[in-house]
Design brief:
With about 350 residues, this protein is of the alpha/beta class. Helix content is about 55%, strand content about 10%.
């Protein structure tokens, strides 16, 4: 295979080396708990290929059953002899054996990109790919609010949008810090304002409010609020949406953890016997509560207090670790824990 250099990157360094990696590498492995950023990075590499050609998609489960398929597909010509690239979406180590055979095989191969949910740069697959020449291993951790707000600003710049005030942060928060959802919101704003790189427009809170009715419905928070608020009747629909949108289980768990941490911080600020409504108003004025979250947080603070809140935080931490360790069962583990949260909240 062509390519003599191997690259290793994370969310902070990927942008600087992506162009060179797209030119010099033949096999790419994207991993880490932020699956949306890993997928976006893979898309950026495809855009940087000299001739991406036809896209051939293979699932990790298919490669686990038939490890030889990857090497064969990467060395097969398309129907008309045009360029092609292979895109694999896997869980954990599903693609390991296939990658091993692919890297050992003879002959010129087309670019292979693997997005491995729940894998890390310490996984067997990552070490295998990173040990070969002409490869890239990129690890993506979930961003904090400031990081995602900066990402939103970059996406807006490319779309011809100038974001006023704290709009970038609001979009980041509404998207649950998920890059794909944030990008979708930026695209909606650009479409609404008829913005483009050559005809930039300024987006303000009025424009955001105009499309905001649908914004939150695309993110993690409806599921988080349904469970933490004990809304059992809403839960089946939200779990169905979770599967339909293929939301990353670890990302969903992180959204629960962030809200639980916020509830813990707010709970620690409350004085014994303090009126909840007055407390919420004060915290909103102090900008510790976003106005769109006010109603849900007030309800959840009335439910999750003291030992019950401590137990929730402990269980969410254990869930996060279990999801990373058991990628094959991630969706089931998440659904079971969400059901427990909803039952506990409804008691």
């Amino acid at each position: 295979m062509a390519g003599a250099q191997s690259f290793k990157a994370n969310q902070n360094t990927f942008g600087r080396i992506a162009g060179q990696a797209a030119r010099d590498c033949h096999t790419f492995f994207f991993c880490g708990p932020d699956e949306s950023a890993a997928s976006a990075a893979a898309t950026q590499i495809v855009a940087g290929l000299a001739d991406a050609g036809e896209r051939v998609e293979i699932s990790g489960s298919d490669l686990r059953r038939d490890p030889v398929r990857l090497a064969d597909e990467a060395r097969s010509s398309s129907l008309f002899g045009d360029a092609r690239h292979i895109f694999v979406r896997a869980n954990g180590e599903e693609a390991h054996d296939a990658l091993k055979l692919h890297l050992e095989a003879e002959g010129e191969a087309c670019p292979v990109l693997v997005v491995a949910t729940s894998a890390t740069d310490k996984s067997r697959s990552a070490k295998l790919v990173g040990g070969a020449k002409g490869t890239l291993v990129a690890m993506f951790y979930p961003p904090n609010l400031a990081d995602m707000a900066n990402t939103v600003r970059d996406l807006a710049d490319r779309a011809g949008l100038r974001l006023g005030g704290d709009l970038a942060q609001r979009i980041a928060r509404a998207s649950g810090l998920d890059r794909r959802l944030a990008e979708a919101e930026v695209e909606k704003l650009a479409l609404y304002l008829d913005a483009a790189p050559d005809t930039p427009k300024t987006a303000d809170l009025e424009a955001w409010d105009a499309i905001g009715a649908t914004s939150e419905e695309d993110g993690f928070m409806p599921l988080v609020n349904a469970a933490l608020g004990g809304h059992a009747r809403r839960l089946p629909g939200e779990l169905t949406r979770l599967r339909t949108l293929a939301l990353n289980p670890v990302g969903v768990a992180l959204a629960f953890e962030r809200r639980a941490a916020q509830l813990a911080q707010l709970s620690a600020r409350m004085r014994p016997g303090e009126d909840l409504g007055s407390f919420i108003d004060a915290q909103k004025r102090a900008r510790r509560i976003f106005f769109k979250d006010e109603r849900d947080i007030a309800q959840q603070l009335g439910i999750w207090r003291g030992r019950r809140l401590d137990r929730l935080v402990s269980r969410l931490t254990a869930l996060h670790q279990a999801l990373l360790a058991n990628s094959q069962q991630a969706e089931l583990l998440l659904s079971q824990e969400i059901a427990w949260i909803a039952r506990e909240a409804a008691r």
